[in-house]
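[stage:ingest] chain + small molecule (calcium ion)
[stage:ingest] validated
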Amino acid sequence: AKAAGRDTHRFYAEAMNAEAVAHLSTRSGLRRALERGEFLIHYQPQISLETGAVTGAEALLRWNHPDKGMVPPGDFIPIAEDSGLIVPIGAWVLTEACRQAAQWHTQGLSLSVAVNLSALQLQRGDLVATVTRALAESGLDPLLLELELTESMLIQNTDVVMDNLRRIKAMGVQVSIDDFGTGYSNLSYIGRLAVDKLKIDRGFVADLTRNHDSAKITAAVIQMAHSLNLTAVAEGVEDSETLEALRGLHCDVAQGYYLGRPGPAEAVERAARQVNPF
Ligand code: C2E
Ligand code: CA
Ligand code: CA
Ligand code: CA
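[stage:predict] done
[stage:export] tokens:
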């Protein structure tokens, strides 16, 4: 039993070591990726449920790894967050997304771009300078930039976080709460922080037409958004039935595979130029 215990111990030690090595190699890989330009952004269109027009796009980070190919963000963003590399990577995303939206604007397309922020970025004193620089370099109208935060990032209402949000709002940048409904249940911050949009988590949207509770929650979030003068966005729309249900609930904006998968900027451009009445 003692030997088995030792073996078990060694097994765990080796497993942990392998994990640590994988982690480390991803960490140095991430640093290299930034230097060598291996990151790219895919854009997913957001559609007005009133007109059917594309109104903007969410920027979703991708890592085009030289050996592994396209690595999804779930595989490397947690490591980028742990190592602090999310700060320079996030600054790159902001710069690139603003540049793209400014380019759309010069092409006659007035599309907003939504960028996901990490907790660490929101906690740092240099966030406003980073956003200011991205806007100045691109010439993008601040009203066309949207920052997506999650509820959990707002419960750490430190002075820095509150100051960052206040200053970002003062610049005219839009703020939305991502994955709404999955996080903190104290809603008082929404009024206090003057956010602009609620993005209903796709967990509720996905089974809207099959699950009565999800339908009720989605309807309630849309109502609450409207009574606070906020825009309601549904993400994870995967079929026409869900789209129709959301239109019936007077949801404002929708996003999901049914309306367009994340892809190169050109795909959003093409969709935006199409007249697409429902
Ligand atoms: P998220 O912000 O909730 O982004 C939406 C995710 O849902 C994206 O996954 C998108 O591809 C996926 N999605 C969109 N429509 C549908 C649909 O109809 N059905 C289903 N099943 N999924 C759909 P993705 O691109 O893998 O991103 C995962 C997460 O990684 C994002 O979740 C976000 O939290 C994070 N992320 C992505 N880019 C960035 C970034 O630049 N910075 C930070 N900090 N996080 C990012
Ligand atoms: Ca998001
Ligand atoms: Ca989301
Ligand atoms: Ca998420």
